[in-house]
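fwd from M.: "can u put these together and see what the complex looks like"

so here's what she sent:
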Amino acid sequence: LALIIMRISVLKLFMQLGGEQISSIGRGICVLLGISLEDTHKEIEHMVRKILNVRVFEDESGKHWSKSVMDKQYEVLCVSQFTLQCILKGNKPDYHMAMPAEQAEPFYNNFLEHLKKAYKPELIKDGKFGAYMQVNIQNDGPVTIELESPAATMDPKQLTKLEKQQQRKEKTRTKAPSESSRERNAPRNKDDPSASSGAEGDVSSEREP
Amino acid sequence: LALIIMRISVLKLFMQLGGEQISSIGRGICVLLGISLEDTHKEIEHMVRKILNVRVFEDESGKHWSKSVMDKQYEVLCVSQFTLQCILKGNKPDYHMAMPAEQAEPFYNNFLEHLKKAYKPELIKDGKFGAYMQVNIQNDGPVTIELESPAATMDPKQLTKLEKQQQRKEKTRTKAPSESSRERNAPRNKDDPSASSGAEGDVSSEREP
């Protein structure tokens, strides 16, 4: 799991520029969540705890980095963001390490459920999974923090990273199932109004390594 | 160097909520830049090339991930963001790995100069270094990509990470100059209107491990 947490004054989600608003929060945090092929449900609990407890707010006396979103009873807005699993091949983003949408969507919903259970359901907001949106983030500070899942921060990180690279190479060479599912999954971005001629063939080909 | 790149419809910087607008761009990318203690000027050129060439835009036919900000002649807005060098100690962000402001500011300005030289100066915008701002990001997609500097992506990454951890431990134990300068540097956030009682003593103590 790759997470980006931003401290927020206001956050609004729209389906398109100047279009329908689908979600919003006031003060709180925005969580961008990138789910990788290797992520397991075990990591969710740890990440939920970090999100709710990381101290990005000041206390009543103005002391920075002393209160969490939960301490302040502020809101959390989550957006699934597979581009956080990007690996650059030259200058081209490659997303084969991202979990395909058909698995990532239930994973993401499970993550949201954990977050609601650990906090208050009414303070957890959400976007529309996989949809093309305009995410209007008023970053307060700015304060932006990257979090890694425990699998990536434990001692054998070195090994894990190397393993990932090797697995990726294998996948690229052998066209493993994950890759073909990734291609099925490609039209995820077909809503993109700018992708007028976004035929599936085009989209899948542009995800080729 | 830790970078976050976001694809932008509109981006506006304000000195405070509802306050004076200090910078803005239309379509383009937002670059949040976290400079670490170990970063050297050598890395700047590589990162500038990546920022300008990473393909986050679609082409005329709507094909995704095929055009860079430079291809499209869009704008770039950079914001220095030391919180990207955060290390969590429990739930508390620790910023001893971030380059202290007195070195980070010339480093950042050099980075901006390289960016302007490699592109067009008039298409590179900036915030106010070290200031407390409201960064209003309209993330288009959303599309958010993390980039690491070459030092962190080369083979000896494993070693580098371990070295960092060890160095950090040393620093914490021995109160190396970098730490004391970090404390001098702490009032960076004193502009924070919420930090009403933000006496220097308070601020430096909250940066203690």
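replying to her w this: The two ends of chain A are 22 Å apart (CA to CA).
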